[in-house]
Amino acid sequence: SDLYCMPFRPDKIVIGGVIAKSAHLFLPTVKESVGDKTDQLFAISELLGKAPLIGAAYRCLETISRSAKAW
Fold first, then answer.
1. Helix H or strand E segment including 4
2. What is the pLDDT along the chain (71 residues), one digit of tens a residue?
3. What is the distance between the alpha carbons of residues 45 and 24, in angstroms, rounded to a whole number?
4. Nearest-angstrom CA–CA distance, 51 and 65
5. In this structure, how many other beta carbons lie within 10 angstroms of the beta carbon of residue 15?
6. Can you give the three-state secondary structure of 29-63, one letter per residue?
7. What is the dihedral of CA 15, 20, 25, 29, to 10 degrees?
8. DSSP labels for 6-22?
9. Cα–Cα distance for residue pair 13/43, rounded to 1 Å
């Protein structure tokens, strides 16, 4: 495969964000190009466009928690 990520042999590639809504348009071609016949390599995030906000909130809470422990 010529895909950039394949030399890393990922266990899972998650398609997230707003583009996940259009995965049905491109994912079959991508799966074919990497030889993914098992449907196990790719996953569509259920968070879609909410993922960045959830990630930012998690990071914020993590930072606050560490700061509180430093006191």
1. none
2. 455 656 677 788 888 888 888 999 999 998 888 877 777 889 998 888 888 888 899 999 999 988 887 77
3. 13
4. 21
5. 17
6. HHHHHHCCCCCCCEEECCCHHHHHHHHHHHHHHHH
7. 0
8. GGG--S-EEE-SGGGGG
9. 6
